[in-house]
Write a structure and sequence with these properties.
six-stranded mixed sheet; three-stranded mixed sheet; Kinase family protein; kinase
Length: 491
């Protein structure tokens, strides 16, 4: 089925890629098809982790907590060159190694692109250590409260809120709704600049220890009464994080709620964002924060409804996180620069206008040779309606009325009497023009299924993947499309 179908098959698309950039119907496996991307849970030896962290060198400490939560997190590197974060508990935290292993294994069974996933543990003698994926671009606290060159952009703050809600929804769906001490230090940024929730908070700091180590002014009211964390407590903490994102400061919820009730919410907004967001957007996010901070736990929204509310607020959804964050980004190293065709070049630049011109120019010549068993249906009114849908779609596409083009091409495709890779390609671009990259990717893949040796299908997949922020996969797909076209031109 062609060079890319083994990797980007439609079943893979529907099960993994569909929620990639913003949606979250299933973030398990996170759209990664690289086996090494999600290692299975491993029981490490103390020697391995000592070697990885330089003997738990103080030079490798990335965070440490005080007396209330005596544990330290180290950066390390395994023999296979994988970077890891190692959390070392104090000696008395988990006396029963079996309980520790059971809890770690349960958290380690989770796999999501919204989590800094737990990939192993160690329990030798008195030692209790957790091993997670290493996130190279610091914490939300650093980017929000202690930024040096630029404040975090409004679009990125909205994305952090959404990705965090998606992480909580995913954990809830897997029976891990409790998260201990959710705060701005628990949100980390991966190599692509995407925010992820640290898996360490899914386990307590000790079997019977306190769940909150931060200032009590930020803890849920019910925790102060009972000392227990509930899923609703986690939503309360999520509300305090929304306040952090709105204000760029760590403001006690009681103070923030007083300002909100007094209609003074603009006093809460980060002054560094002035002119970069609409008051309506600020109001919507503030309203969501105040719902999360309700005194009565039962009146707070659940993680699923948080995702729905935050999806509607997203801005600049097509811009990759590393761009919004101003983080340098490594792309896949290429042995030699690709010699791109004009179409490949347009897809690399995500120049949708140029892509439109090229698709319009080549018309339907690439549909020649596609088998369409029409038989007597050619003469039925159903067939005529289908052909009319395509004709109206082409007229709308030429006029750059992409919403109408989507509707007409959908009628043609749903008619089921003819198959046209070009119609899939045109609807794909129409979806991209309407900022619907997930749907666009589905069409680019369908075009390839219909016509496996058609480079245009691969080029469009690359454009969709660039739009989804999946830079590495996009570069690979672009390369495959270029190679396929070169091979075709030789024959």
């Amino acid at each position: 089925m062609g060079a890319r179908c083994s990797k980007f098959s439609l079943c893979w698309f529907h099960s993994h890629l569909k929620p990639s950039v913003l949606e979250s119907s299933d973030l398990e496996n996170g759209g990664k098809n690289d086996r090494n991307a999600w290692p299975s849970f491993t029981e490490f030896s103390l020697e391995q982790l000592k070697a990885a962290t330089g003997g738990f060198s103080s030079d490798n400490i990335v965070s440490e907590h005080g007396e209330k939560a005596p544990n330290v997190v180290y950066k390390g590197k395994l023999d296979n060159d994988r970077w890891i974060a190692v959390k070392r508990f104090n000696k008395l935290a988990w006396p029963d190694s079996r309980q520790f292993l059971e809890e770690a294994r349960a958290v380690g069974s989770l796999r999501s692109e919204r989590l800094a996933n737990l990939i192993g543990c160690c329990y030798e003698g008195d030692e209790r250590l957790l091993v997670a994926e290493f996130m190279p671009h610091e914490t939300l606290a650093k980017h929000l409260f202690h930024w040096e060159t630029q404040p975090m952009k409004w679009a990125m703050r909205l994305r952090v809120a959404l990705y965090l809600a998606q992480a909580l929804e995913y954990c809830s769906s897997k029976g891990r709704a409790l998260y201990h001490d959710l705060n701005a230090y628990r949100i980390l940024f991966d190599k692509d600049g995407n925010p992820r929730l640290s898996c360490f908070g899914l386990m307590k700091n000790s079997r019977d220890g306190k769940s909150y180590s931060t200032n009590l002014a930020f803890t849920p009211p019910e925790y102060l009464r009972t000392g227990r964390v509930t899923p609703e407590s986690v939503v309360y903490s999520f509300g305090t994080l929304l306040l952090d994102l709105l204000s760029g400061k760590h403001i006690p919820p009681s103070h923030a709620l007083d300002l909100i009730r007094g209609k003074n919410f603009l006093m809460l907004m980060d002054s560094a964002l002035e002119g970069h967001f609409s008051n309506d957007d600020g109001t919507d996010l503030m309203r969501l924060a105040s719902r999360c901070l309700q005194y009565e736990a039962r009146e707070r929204p659940n993680a699923k409804s948080l995702v729905t509310a935050l999806m509607a607020l997203q801005k600049e959804a097509e811009v990759p996180s590393h761009v919004l964050m101003g983080i340098p980004h490594e792309t896949v190293p290429s042995t030699q620069p690709l010699s791109l065709t004009p179409f490949g070049e347009a897809c690399l630049r995500l120049d949708l206008t140029a892509i439109h011109e090229i698709l319009e120019k080549i018309g339907y010549k690439d549909d020649e040779g596609i088998a369409n068993e029409l038989s007597f249906q050619m003469w039925t009114s159903q067939m005529q309606d289908t052909l009319n849908s395509k004709k109206h779609g082409d007229t709308a596409f030429r006029a750059k009325d992409f919403s109408s083009a989507i509707d007409c091409y959908t009628q043609f495709i749903d008619g089921g009497t003819m198959v046209s890779p070009t119609v899939y390609a045109r609807r794909c671009l129409s979806y991209l023009m309407n900022e619907m990259p997930q749907e666009a990717l589905g069409d680019a893949m369908q075009a390839q299924v219909v016509s496996p040796e058609w480079p245009t299908a691969l080029y469009l997949q690359a454009a969709c993947l660039f739009s989804l922020g999946m830079e590495n996969d996009a570069q690979e797909t672009l390369k495959d499309g270029t190679n396929l076209e070169a091979k075709r031109n030789k024959n």
